Structure formats: structure tokens, C-alpha cells
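Lecture notes, part 5. Sequence design as translation. It can be helpful to think of inverse folding as translation between two languages: the language of shapes and the language of residues. The source text, in C-alpha cells, appears below.
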């Protein structure tokens, strides 16, 4: 469970990097594709297993799981850079909303630049 939470936190960091353009503009670099896929590949099977309601039942495809699957497809074809394609921006926002984060108005997504007290995001998190 500890590793699952680490992968989830890293994915939340990556999704935030992609979802908030002004926050991304403060970044020192884009996360490598292998790093992103590593966390998605570790997260997806555990999230799917945790989404199963009862033994032998079909998985309940929660919104975060559904959007993580789509992000996996999108990140597979993307060469990470500070320019994030609109499809990844939108899917990252949906992933965060699927985790229960409030869905801010469009202008908040496009204007929030993070706290000035926090260090500059790198789009990277600790490898597990």
C-alpha cells in the first residue's frame, strides 16, 4: 500500500504539472516519459484491483482509473516538454477531479501558479 500511495502522489504531481500552465511555466523541466509511465504502470493494476467491489465482481472503473488509463495512452506518444498538448492538459484535469479534487473554473486552471513559498516544481518525484 505504501508503494501505491507513493505512485499516486507522484501521479498527482505529474497531473498538476500538466493541468496548470502557469505552474508548469515555473518548472525547471519536464518529467521524462519513462518516469511518468513507470508511475502509471505501477498505479493502474493496483487501482483496478482496489476498484473491485467484491471478490469475483467486475472492477468498478472509478473516474481516476479511467483517466489514468487514458493518460497512459497519451503519455506513451508524447515526448515530454514544457509544451503540453491540450489533450494531456484536459485529461490531467479530469484525473485530478476523479480523485476528488474540486474542479476549479477554467480561469483557475489557467491562472493558478502555485504558492510562492514552495520550491519550483520539477515535474519529477522520488523514484520507487
Amino acid at each position: 500500500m505504501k508503494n501505491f500511495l507513493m505512485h499516486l502522489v507522484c501521479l498527482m504531481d505529474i497531473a498538476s504539472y500538466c493541468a496548470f500552465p502557469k505552474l508548469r511555466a515555473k518548472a525547471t523541466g519536464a518529467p521524462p516519459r519513462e518516469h511518468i509511465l513507470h508511475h502509471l504502470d505501477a498505479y493502474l493494476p493496483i487501482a483496478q484491483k482496489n476498484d473491485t467491489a467484491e471478490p469475483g465482481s467486475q472492477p468498478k472503473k472509478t473516474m481516476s482509473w479511467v483517466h489514468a488509463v487514458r493518460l497512459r495512452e497519451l503519455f506513451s506518444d508524447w515526448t515530454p516538454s514544457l509544451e503540453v498538448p491540450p489533450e494531456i492538459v484536459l485529461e490531467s484535469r479530469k484525473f485530478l477531479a476523479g480523485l476528488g479534487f474540486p474542479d476549479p473554473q477554467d480561469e483557475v486552471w489557467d491562472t493558478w501558479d502555485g504558492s510562492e513559498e514552495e520550491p519550483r516544481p520539477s515535474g519529477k518525484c522520488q523514484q520507487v
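The translated text above is only one of many valid answers, since several sequences can fold into similar shapes. The chain has a mean pLDDT of 79.
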